Amino acid sequence: MSALTIYASHNATTPEWHSTEGQAIAGQLAQQGVRFERWRADRDLGDAPTPESTLAAYQHAIDRLVDEKGYQSWDVISMRADHPQKAEMREKFLQEHTHGEDEVRFFVEGRGLFCLHLDQRIYQVLCEKGDLISVPAGTPHWFDMGPEPNFTAIRIFDNPEGWIAKFTGNDIADRFPRLG
Ligand SMILES: CSCCC(=O)/C(O)=C/O
Ligand SMILES: [Fe+2]
Ligand code: NI
């Protein structure tokens, strides 16, 4: 079940707030300009989905976002526990970074932990299959796929080039809980 846990940025041990209730999560995040919605992710992707088959299965969801916001490109990121570069990939996304555009992600399999550094708080959003999240451009954040990653997400971009990140150099992610 997706969840939101909020910490003060100076206290990584005692959360200020926690919920698994969709409306409550969306309400807290909306106060920070973050969009969170639970969508249907009920297409059968089979045992070995490719980026192409995943995009084809969820073209209706992509169309909806493109029609709403005029996004320009999209791709699929998928990680499994047998991925040879899983440790490097995990480390890369665990570095706090920003993007020059909204970070729009639709989880169609598995789960991952988005950690948003907003207003002297850390918002840890456990995103699961069916969750749509859109984090405003310029928000410092990191992402934990866990030691045994298992997720597929469609990433929607507001530029033709795709994923571009600027790392902040802040090591705050090292102090906060990770996926076990
Ligand atoms: C679920 S997408 C994770 C990787 C990524 O694109 C990103 O920007 C993480 O912050
Ligand atoms: Fe990111
Ligand atoms: Ni919980």
TrEMBL record:
Q: What is its EC number?
A: 1.13.11.54, 1.13.11.53
> Mind listing the UniProt keywords for this protein, alphabetically?
Amino-acid biosynthesis, Dioxygenase, Iron, Metal-binding, Methionine biosynthesis, Nickel, Oxidoreductase
Q: Which GO terms describe its biological process?
A: L-methionine salvage from methylthioadenosine; L-methionine salvage from S-adenosylmethionine
Say if the entry is tagged with keyword Oxidoreductase.
yes
Location of site May play a role in metal incorporation in vivo? E96
Q: Which residues bind Ni(2+)?
A: H97, H99, E103, H141
Sites marked May play a role in transmitting local conformational changes: D102
Q: Name the cofactor(s) required for activity, per the record.
A: Ni(2+); Fe(2+)
Indicate which residues the UniProt annotation says bind Fe(2+): H97, H99, E103, H141
Q: Where do transmembrane segments lie in this chain?
A: none
How does the cofactor attach, per the note? Binds 1 nickel ion per monomer. Binds 1 Fe(2+) cation per monomer.
Give the record's subunit note.
Monomer.
Described function? Catalyzes 2 different reactions between oxygene and the acireductone 1,2-dihydroxy-3-keto-5-methylthiopentene (DHK-MTPene) depending upon the metal bound in the active site. Fe-containing acireductone dioxygenase (Fe-ARD) produces formate and 2-keto-4-methylthiobutyrate (KMTB), the alpha-ketoacid precursor of methionine in the methionine recycle pathway. Ni-containing acireductone dioxygenase (Ni-ARD) produces methylthiopropionate, carbon monoxide and formate, and does not lie on the methionine recycle pathway.
Identification of the protein by name: Acireductone dioxygenase
The scientific name of the source species is Jejubacter calystegiae
Where is the organism placed in the taxonomic lineage, from the top? Bacteria, Pseudomonadati, Pseudomonadota, Gammaproteobacteria, Enterobacterales
